[in-house]
Amino acid sequence: MSDLLTLAGIHTHIGRYHILHGVDFVVPEGQTTMLLGRNGAGKTTTLRTIMGLWPASSGHISLAGQRIEQRATPDIARLGIGYVPESMAVFSDLTVKENLVLAARDGPLDDSRLEWIFGFFPALRRFWLSRAGSLSGGQKQMLSIARAIVEPRKLLLIDEPTKGLAPAIVMALIECFAEIKRRGATILLVEQNFHVAQQIGDAVLVMDNGKIVHRGDMAELANDSAAQERLLGLSLETHQ
Hints:
The protein is of the alpha/beta class. It has a domain at 81-152. Helix content is 36%, strand content 27%. The strands form two sheets. The protein has a six-stranded mixed β-sheet with strand order 6-7-8-3-9-10, with helices on both faces. Strand 9 (203-208) and strand 10 form a beta hairpin. Helix 3 runs parallel beside helix 6. The relative contact order is 0.18. InterPro entries: AAA+_ATPase, ABC_transporter-like_ATP-bd, ABC_transporter-like_CS, BCAA_Transport_ATP-bd_LivF, P-loop_NTPase. Residues 5-234 form the ABC transporter domain. Pfam families: ABC_tran (PF00005). Belongs to the ABC transporter superfamily. Keywords: Amino-acid transport, ATP-binding, Nucleotide-binding, Transport.
C-alpha cells in the first residue's frame, strides 16, 4: 500500500498565531484516515493548509509524490483533491443542478454517477432545480459532499460532515463514504462523532495543540477506552 498524501514538518501561522507545530503524517492510498482531536486542536487548519487556503510557513506536502505546498488552491484541486469544508460552501443563489455542473470540471455531468449520488441523497433529485440557499442544513451538507464526489477524486478532504445532522442523514453519509472508498477513493476525514469515526475509519490520527499525538488503527483506538479518554476526553460508550 502506497502513501497518497504526506505531510512533513508542517508549520502554519495565521496572523500572529502559530497554529500547526511540525505536523507529520501520511494518508495511505485507498483508506479512510480519521483526523480526531478536541476543538481548537488544529484539524481544520490542517485541511486548509493541504488545500493551500492557509499557506504552510514551512514543511513539505506531497500528493502522489508531487510537492504541492507552494501551489495555488485551484491547481491543488485539479490534481484530484475534493474538499468539503465545515461551512459547506455551496452557492446559495444557484440551483442544485448548477452547483453540480460547476463542480464537474472535466466535462458534462455523468448521468450514471448522478444516479449513484441520488441513491445516497434522494433529496438532491427532489430539489434539483431549487436554489441551494433554500435547502435545509442537512440537504446543504448532502450537496456539498455531492459537489466533491460528482467526479472521481484521488483524495477527499472532509471536515466534520455529520455535525448537527439528523441520524438518518448521518447513516446515509456513512454508507456514502464506505461506497466511495470501495470505488478506490482515499479519504482524510475530520469528525467529532467518535461513533461515526469508528464505523468508517481504517486509520486514525489524533491532534492536540497543533501536533499529531497519536497514530494507529481506528479499530484499536475504538477498543481502548483508556486511550480515548486520555487523547480525546471521551469514551465510546458515551457516544453510541
